[in-house]
Design a protein that fits this description.
This protein is mainly beta. Helices cover 0% and strands 51% of the residues. Strands 2, 4, 5, 6, 9, 10 and 11 form a 7-stranded mixed beta sheet that branches. A 4-stranded antiparallel beta sheet has the order 1-3-8-7, with no helix packed on it.
């Protein structure tokens, strides 16, 4: 069964950092582009960062540029989202998604993680 599993969410104070994980099972994530999306309460899901199969970040949302980065660990079949300088407006459920081409468009992705909740609050 092809599956992506998100983990690493939690409660963090403003200005803090958190690292989210996206683990693939049933297939090799190494050959796929990965993107991170988030959905804040009452808002639509938005793409925030896309990563090529080679590990190159191809697109960022302005709201996270300079604060969020993503990396791949091919040996572990995982992708990470490092989030620094977190703000209350970063509060959302975060999802990873795998597809053939990097993009921030949701329709380009066939396989999605279940999401992990990040709350930024003091």
């Amino acid at each position: 069964q092809l599956q992506l599993v998100n983990s690493g969410g939690g409660l963090v104070q403003p200005g803090g950092s958190l690292r989210l994980s996206c683990e693939a099972s049933g297939f090799s994530l190494n050959y796929y582009a990965v993107a991170w999306f988030r959905q804040a309460p009452g808002k639509e899901r938005e793409g925030i960062l896309s990563l090529s199969s080679a590990g190159i970040t191809t697109d960022y949302a302005d709201s996270v540029k300079g604060r969020f980065t993503s990396s791949r660990d091919n040996a572990k079949n995982m992708v990470y989202l490092q989030m620094n300088s977190l703000k209350p407006e970063d509060t959302a459920t975060y999802y990873c998604a795998a597809g053939h081409y990097p993009s921030l468009l949701q329709g380009r992705y066939d396989l999605w993680g279940q999401g992990t909740l990040v709350i930024v609050s003091s």
